[in-house]
Write a structure and sequence with these properties.
Blueprint (H helix, E strand, L loop, with lengths): L20 H35 L5 H12 L2 H17 L38
């Protein structure tokens, strides 16, 4: 398992430490590669589950991953994350545009605040002189 830097490894007077490539390879071989092998075994199970979310539940897998990540967050961290996300979405004018799902009857589709689609503007081209 990798260990933190030793006290004597600190650079002196802004000196840039020489990269220790052998140590990096050792960490890769002893820690990273075995962990990746274990992760690979479970990655297929996760992939199959996310495919089912997409194909059977008809939910965007990226949105599901984000929702599950939010679900597992501590309340205060989740609140901070969501405030930041919503603030950035407002600043960047990101929101849902109305479509046929939104036109469904009352209670048939989930509701989320929507924004009107901006009219496209044409670029002006000046004539060549």
């Amino acid at each position: 398992m990798p260990r933190g830097r030793k006290a004597d490894d600190k650079p002196i007077n802004g000196e840039i430490p020489k990269p220790d490539f052998a140590l990096a390879v050792k960490f890769y071989k002893e820690d990273i590669r075995p962990a990746q092998a274990k992760v690979g075994e479970f990655a297929q199970e996760q992939s199959t589950a996310y495919q089912a979310i997409k194909k059977q539940a008809h939910v965007h897998p990226g949105a599901a991953k984000l929702a599950f990540k939010l679900h597992d967050m501590e309340d205060t961290k989740r609140d901070d994350f969501l405030r930041s996300l919503y603030g950035l979405m407002q600043e960047l004018d990101i929101g849902l545009t109305r479509d046929l799902v939104d036109a469904m009857g009352e209670g048939e589709a989930d509701q989320m605040p929507t924004r009107e689609r901006k009219r496209p503007t044409l670029a002006t081209v000046s004539p060549l002189n």
